[in-house]
Structure formats: structure tokens, C-alpha cells
Please model this.
Amino acid sequence: MRWERARALLDASERSGRVVPERGKQACARPGSSVPRPASESRRKPLPVAEPLRPLLPGGSLRRGGTVAVDRSPALVLALLAAASAGGAWCALVGLPEIGLVAAEEAGLDLSRLALVSEPGLELVGVTAALLDGLDLVVVAGGERLPAGARQRLAARARQAGSVLLPVGSWPGADVRLEVEGGRWSGLVGAGAGRLRGRRVRLRARGRGAAYRKRSVELLLPGPEGRAVVLPEGSAGLPERAGRSGPADAGGSAFIREAS
Amino acid sequence: MDAPRVLALWCPDWPVVAATGAAGVPAHRPAVVVSANRVLACTAPARAYGVRRGLRRREAQSRCPELVVLPADPARDARAFERVAVAVERLAPGVEVVRPGLVALSARGPVRYFGGDLPAAERLVDQVAAEAGVECQVGIADGLFGATLAARRAVVVGPGGTPRFLARLSIDELGREPDVDRAELVSLLRRLGLLTLGSFAALPATDVASRFGADAVLAHRLALGLDPRPPSRREVSEELAVSVELDPPVTRVDAAAFASRSLADRLHILLADRGLACTRLGIRARMSDGSELVRVWRCAEPLTPSGTVDRVRWQLDAWLTRARPVGRADPVGGVGALTLSGEEVVLAGMLQLGLWGEIGGADERAGRALVRVQSLLGPEGVHTAVLGGGRDPGERVRLVPWGVDRRGGGDRCDEEAGAVPSGSRVASQPRPWPGRLPAPSPATVLVRSIPVEVRDGVGRPVRIDERQVISSPPARVAVGGARPQVVHGWAGPWPVEQCWWDVEAGWGGYRLQVVLGSTDGAGEEALLLVCQEGGRWSLAGRYD
Model:
């Protein structure tokens, strides 16, 4: 009887959007910071991802409140953020001091809405929690050092605030896990000619719930312009290294011409 | 209805006076302060050579080869100006700093005390010259606008004579205020043949309002010699003040400025709740030795949060680093408590709040979250990136702490880099940069490069000679002492000549892209290698 009453209460509070207080949250909240407000209407819309990555994710987008673990591949991280950032979402990179920001712009991110917290140090949990409250996409490196409780609190924070947590590296309990497999570069013509133009990789997604079905997709990451590109039909779009079919626009020891 | 009598005290060319004072440049040397490659202010000797405001830096240098070029720095200007403000305050109370270089005060008190306009002006000029050691000019007129223009000409305009005084002046005077950009309006009025303030003032106010918009109405009131805002100012209630106790007392400027940021936000939230905006900001600090320092900043336009933070930072900088006051041996110590108050407020209707451009709900929320992260890690904890010109993926990136203006600055290696003092860089993203590697760029750019060993098929180190020819094709690459990996493909070498005229910053070398086969079958790895002169190879980036 008591169980049923508690259950009904919980359902009602979830329907009305009120946050059910949790024990673990107190450790996350800093003094002066209020308990996160429930996700507002504008923060309910899913965040878009670039066309080539859509087959990987359930619903073809990044679901707000979810946790998507990403392999240790900066190019994949940038490709995941690109479409949402270009569409007005705020992104943060925590603990990734060496990420290539030129590559980020080429991937399609808007750098004015990209916050960089290069050295969170001992405040990793507090910083990430604060960012999850206000920003849409938060990429966190170094999360495998955290105790399981802190990881769960961060995932819960993302769920309440309606943002997406994207841990880099291993993160048990993630909704989806994206992995990079293989990698074959094209664009090098041989004997020093050509230049790197694209990498053909296979991405695999595993997860739980809606993402339980294993998915994989082959694509160019990065493509010739820096963005992720759907693999052309028959994969004959880019010159393979062995053949000399590619435009030898950059000779062995000549200056590269400005690509623009 | 009449505007009150205002006494304005103006120090000509203040940015360059402050800069030469700080840099120790003697007064007879021609000097300029340059901002965004344009001359912002110049000394009288420089003017004698034909250097003018708004000139390009190179043009100024060609007119006067021995010109001393100094960077613009609003904080330094404000810090140096504190001495002038203190000197004026000794003679007359109620001093308001309009901006570094210009103070305004109510003329009634000093004029009556010293027995006339001219004696008061004379006493103030003498006082500033004796105590602060700078030249200044005084003007008295009705209203701040008239008084400022009178100070530029060092004249006293009699009561009620301000409209006549303004009528003869050029229409360009409307655009002289550095905080307000009226260049478009001024140029439009010129094209309409309204060359003096008087001809503009002669237009009916209703026609101005319907034809030119809200800012022109303000400018029209100025040209008429009226107070720019209708006289329905709100009485300030006591609670329009926010304060913070700093324990332990703050002695460093950056720490005090950081505390002031949240305080300014609180003040603006307080004002916004009442639908008000602040035109005069009172800054009050209680120092750790018990003394209390007060300064009022007046602004032509209602203050934005970032404008408030700037003024508080300048003021704290001045208080914390100023020369010790006369007759006091002990340093002022740290700031123990800080209070900001809106001394004069107007209805906030026209004020556009700007964080960066327009403010949306999402931007505001993100801004708050980032400020909270800064409160955990310090102001340097959160950055955003700006891409400038350059050839290397690392050198194009400039990291800007959150809250600092993203514009301005840019190239590390401009064509005129040798002459530019650091801090006054010039952004020029679209310029072609021959030798820049086209997309895709490395997704990892190393902060500290790792030494790499590059060997050919028979184990000899690979070198590149002066003719840019590679000694033999690279076959094995070992990164940072790890096991050598087989090279699947390579491209380059591409020569780099970076600032070859600069002995310290310049460097020359070659770039090479290599694709390595992995040992555990996980896929290929692509690297960007750099060969410095002398044959030292290092890893600059990874395409991962």
C-alpha cells in the first residue's frame, strides 16, 4: 500500500516536471548555486548531428539529458558537436587542452559558442556540473578517474538540466558508446606528392535502451574540407594512395597553394 | 528646465600623456598612442610633424621617423588619471570622472567660493599642474555637453549663453564623444547641408524624431544646449546599492576586478528589476586601514554590465597602485569592502543589454554557467578561441578568457611585427597566408612538441638540405622514444619561413605529413611533423 502511494507520488511529480530531490545532488551543488531548474521548453528539442553520423544515434540526433561516451578521437568529438554548435547550441570542452581549434572550425563549430576549460584540475566534477546546467553539450576528458558515484551524479545532472554529457574515454553506464575502428588515409599520391585529404573509418555505436541495437557506419572523418562526409557510392570518391588518379596539386617540395 | 552649470576639466591628449608618463618618454619626444593601427592621440611635438588623430601608424611614422609608438591601454589611462581627480577633489567636492582625461563637477560651489568663473578656473588649472604635473583646460557652460566643448576651447560661457556658443560649432562635435558612435548621423547631417550645430538645432524636434530616430533626438537636445535626457530623473532610493565584504582584504588588481564582476552583475540585476539603467555609477571602497574612498563615474550613455566592470576595474587599479597620498607614509592596504551604487538612473527603455551582440535566453544562461566555472577556477579558467591569421594550426589560435572582448588582436606574426609593441596586435584573418596547410587540419595540436626520430629504409636519419630536397624517403618514425613505426605514406616537405626578419620570433624549417601503420592493427595514424633547421624533427600535431 505504501509502495503504491509512493509510486503515484513519483509519477505525479515527474509529470508536473518537478525535480525529485536526490541525496547525491547535494555534493554536486556548490554553495550559492541553486538546484538546477527543470528543463525549459526550449531545452527539450533534440540536438542535431551531422548527416553522416545520423545512422549511429537513436532518433538521428543527440537526445537531451543523455550521456554519449566517445572514443578518444578528437575528430569524432568535433564532428559530433558540429551541427548543434552551428545551430546555436553552446558547447564546452573540459580537460582537452590539445584539441585542434582550427580543425574545430573546419568541422563546422562556431568558436564564439565554444567554451574551453583546459585544466579543471581537482574541480572536474564541480566544473562539469556547472557547465551541464547552462550549456547544451559538455565534453569531458579524464572522467575514468572519477568514482562511480560522481559519474552517476553528473549523468543525473545532465538529465535534469536537459543537456548532453559527452565523456571521452571509458564511461560505464553511458546511453550510447561510439567507437572508431580502423582508419585509412587518402590523398597521399606517393613519393612525397599530394597531401592528407580524408580518413575512411568505421564508427560503431553500442548502447542500452533505444540504442541497444548495434549500429555502424563508414564515413570520411575528417573529409577533405574538415567536416565528416558520407562515403561516396562505391567509395571511389577519393583517390586511393596507390593509384595516381588524384590531382597532384602539391608537388613534393613545392609550396602548398592556398586552398581558399 | 535649464541645464545646471557644469565645470569641465579636460586634459588634452590624455592617452598619450598617461602612456609617455608610464613609459618614461620625455615630453619633447614626438609620441603617439596607437589603437587598431590608427593614431588615437599624439603629443604636441608629433603634431608639429604633421601627425594627426586617425592616421595609420605607418603614415605617422613616415611623417616623423623618430616617433615613439605606444599601445593603447584604458586601464593605464584611468590609473594615471586618479591623481588628477584627487587634485581637483582637494579644491572642489562632487567630482565626477566622465572618462580618463575629463572630469565634470557642478560649477556653483567653486565659482562662488573662489569669487568668479575665471578665478575658479585658474585655481583648478594651477592645482592640477602643481599636484599631478599635467596640463589641463577648464570650461564652464550649461550642461555637460556644452562644458566639455567649452573645456576643449578653454572658454567660459556665461549663464544662458550655451545655445549661442554651440550654434557656431561644427556638426562634427556631436561625434567626438568616444563612448557614442554617431559617425553615421554626423555624415548624414553633413550631406544634408547642416554643417553647424546651430543649423541642426534650428530643426523642429518633432521632425528630427520622425526622420532620424531616437539617438538623433538626444543629439538634437545636445545641440540645443539642453540636458540630453528630459529632466524627469528618478530619485534614487537607498537600496540601489550592492556591496561585498572581501575577507581577506584584496590587494591584487585582478582579484579585486574579479570580485567586482559579480558585484556589477548584481547591481544590474537590481536595476533591471526596477526597469532602470545607471548613468552615474558610485564606487565606494573601504580599505583595510579603515579609510573610505569614493569616486563617481558619469557616463553619456547608460552603463552596460561590461561597461560597469571596466570602470570598477580601472578605479580599483588606480586606488591599489596609486602613488601614496601626500602626508601619508603607509600604503593604503587592501580593499576590505566594495560598494557599487547607482547615483543617477534613467528608465532603461532604450538600453540594449549586450553580452556579445544580442542576448538570448540561452546565451545568458551559458554566460552565467561560465562565470560560475570562473568562480571555481579563477578568471583564467575558461577561454573561448579566436582564429587569427597565421600558417600553423597552433599559431592561428588566440585564447581569450571568458568575459574579455573577443575582438582586437590577432596575428602573432604580422608583416609589421618588428615595430609593434606586444599587446597592440592587428587582426587580419582574410589575408592570404601562402604556405598555410589546407584543410583538414590536425585534430590534436600539441602544446609542447615531442621530439621525433625519422629514418629511411637503411636506418639513416632523414634530412632536408637547403634546396628543400629530402635526403631519402622516410621509412620509419619513432615518436618520443617509442618503438619505430612503418611509414605507409608521406607528403612534403613544405618549407616554412616564419618572420625571417625577426631574430627571436622567426624560425625556418619544413613540414611533413606522414601516415604510419599501426602495430596493433587499429588503423593508420597520420602525423604532422616539423623539421627545424639543423635536422631536429618534432611532432606538431596528430590527425586523429
Observations:
- Residues 13-41, 236-260 of chain A have pLDDT under 50 and may be disordered.
- The first strand of chain A starts at residue 47 and ends at 48.
